[in-house]
Amino acid sequence: MDLLTILLSSLLSALSPMGLILDETLEGTIRDRFEEVEALQVRIDNAPSHQILAGKVERVRVAGRGLWLPPLIEGGDNDRPSLRIALLEVETDPIDLDLDRLNDGIEALEKPLQAGIRLVLEEEDLDRALSSGTASAEVPTFEMGDYSIIAPQIDFTDENRVQVQVAVRQKGDRESLSVAIESGLQVRQGRYLEFVEPSISVNGEEAAPEILVGILGAAGQWDLDRLTPPGTIVRLLRWHLTPDGLDVAAFVSIDNGQSR
To answer: What's one Pfam family here (predicted)?
Structure first.
């Protein structure tokens, strides 16, 4: 979970050798992790001083609007950052760090870092991110093996339903194929992101179901436990997708990676 990793790395950077940490220090460190920040508030509930000296923090709360992540695609003529987060809210459980291992990243965690997160992404920001940098009608946005993915577009067509359109070109070919995938999305058990009534078309004609299986998986769902790195657990508590954007609430836990 990159966003919580940003918070953790910022906390480690802001924590002084004496174990003291200030709201302003952490806010400045978090700001430095983003290309641009429109609004940000940070509040730290500190434990008694003797616990702070032992690397313990009671709670960290972060509320931000208009947070611009670094570009996904380097270079090109586009000078805008890659993805704008419309809203980010984070509230952690108590944090326990080994002060002697602050330079070791998540290895400094004495117990898992747990937090509730709310994230809002707007459709226009996602579209801008996908089409930024070197993306154009001719220049590939992504390379996947022998195939080039060109100028992808995303469209939230209805409540909890999304369409993704891309041009796909095999290396050596001049012509590209127009591919459109549309599917409903729902969350099961907080862990599985299920595709509901998915469909795929190539150059405007419905494609064979086998192609969907290759893209979405035979089970028609993605398991978040398989998508997250070792030591990280993500459980979706709310998933609300509308034509305007995506509003997600999740519980996230990160440990030092040794228990998984």
So the answer is: LmeA
The model's confidence at residue 119, banded by pLDDT at 50, 70 and 90, is very high
Answer yes or no: are the C-beta atoms of 182 and 169 closer than 8 Å: no
Whole-number Å distance between alpha carbons of 86 and 67 = 7
Query: Which residue in 127, 15, 31 sits closest to 88, CA to CA?
Result: 31
Phi-psi region of 8 (alpha: psi -120 to 50; beta: other; left: phi over 0): alpha
Q: How many CB atoms lie within 10 A of CB 240?
A: 12
- Residue appearing with tokens 């380097």: 74
Q: pTM of the prediction?
A: 0.81
Q: Write down the pLDDT at residue 215.
A: 79
E strand map for 93-146: 95-96, 113-122, 142-144
Q: Which domain holds residue 245?
A: 2-124+228-254
